[in-house]
């Protein structure tokens, strides 16, 4: 199954994502402040790559930054425009987006967005696109899920609200490094309930793979961020990285 189809499946999931899964932005801002925002001017323009429903873009906009958000899901972008009306949002693919050179002083991609890119070749292409879009000395900050997080979070859980319910089942194959998500979504439509079955995939990457790909693209000062002081210890399996364009 291609990544394009999977991300488009998020159109079906956008409403629940917007209501239930987008609160991560509050916890991310302190990390961004220390490793990105304190190093760029307030007049800087930041790209939120795979921006989802725009809550983080809004938080950055409220701090005074110019923000552009891109995501492949049209429904996610629809919610993003509602959540952050003063921000520019575009329906774009992270693997193929093109911006004029030196457009951004910072690029971010968080909430394991890049785990939806399912091969190292495509991750390399995403990194190359980011590199090309950054100004000299521009900073790229992002996170990924390593294998540890998938090993800890397989199984099923559900969300039940008066007008919708969602069941999420997760399995992980340690040989292929693929996590398989099956979302079963029920939404109330006037006098009946509509069911949608949404398959999604992610892939885990090692920190070594990510660092080597960044260096291969041309980034310098590549490092994994210690986020223990921000309530995200390494044992959780979520890794943050920062890199600079020369």
From TrEMBL:
**Organism taxonomic ancestry:** Bacteria, Bacillati, Bacillota, Bacilli, Bacillales
The protein's superkingdom reads Bacteria
Which species is listed as the source?
Thermoflavimicrobium dichotomicum
- UniProt keyword terms in alphabetical order: Methyltransferase, Transferase, Ubiquinone
Biological process annotations from GO: methylation
The answer to whether keyword Methyltransferase applies is yes
Q: What is this protein called?
A: Ubiquinone/menaquinone biosynthesis C-methylase UbiE
Q: Name one GO molecular function term.
A: methyltransferase activity
Q: Does the keyword Kinase apply?
A: no
Every Methyltransferase domain range: 46-138
């Amino acid at each position: 199954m291609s990544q394009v189809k999977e991300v488009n499946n998020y159109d079906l999931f956008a409403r629940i994502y917007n209501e239930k899964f987008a609160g991560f932005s509050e916890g991310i801002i302190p990390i961004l402040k220390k490793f990105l925002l304190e190093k760029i001017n307030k007049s800087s323009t930041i790209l939120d790559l795979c921006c989802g429903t725009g809550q983080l873009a809004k938080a950055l906009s409220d701090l005074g930054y110019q923000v552009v958000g891109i995501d492949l899901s049209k429904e996610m972008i629809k919610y993003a425009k509602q959540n952050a009306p003063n921000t520019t949002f575009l329906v774009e693919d992270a693997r193929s987006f093109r911006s004029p050179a030196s457009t951004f002083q910072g690029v971010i991609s968080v909430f394991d967005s890049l785990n939806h890119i399912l091969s190292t070749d495509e991750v390399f292409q995403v990194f190359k696109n980011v590199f090309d879009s950054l100004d000299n000395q521009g900073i790229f900050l992002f996170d990924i899920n390593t294998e540890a997080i998938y090993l800890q979070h397989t199984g099923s859980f559900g969300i039940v609200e008066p007008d919708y319910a969602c069941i999420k089942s997760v399995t992980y194959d340690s040989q292929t490094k693929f996590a398989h998500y099956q979302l079963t979504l029920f939404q109330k439509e006037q006098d009946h309930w509509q069911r949608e079955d949404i398959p999604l995939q992610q892939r885990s990457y090692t920190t070594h793979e990510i660092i080597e790909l960044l260096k291969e693209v041309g980034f310098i000062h590549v490092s994994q961020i210690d986020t223990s002081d921000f309530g995200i210890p390494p044992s959780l399996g979520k890794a943050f990285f920062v890199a600079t364009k020369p």
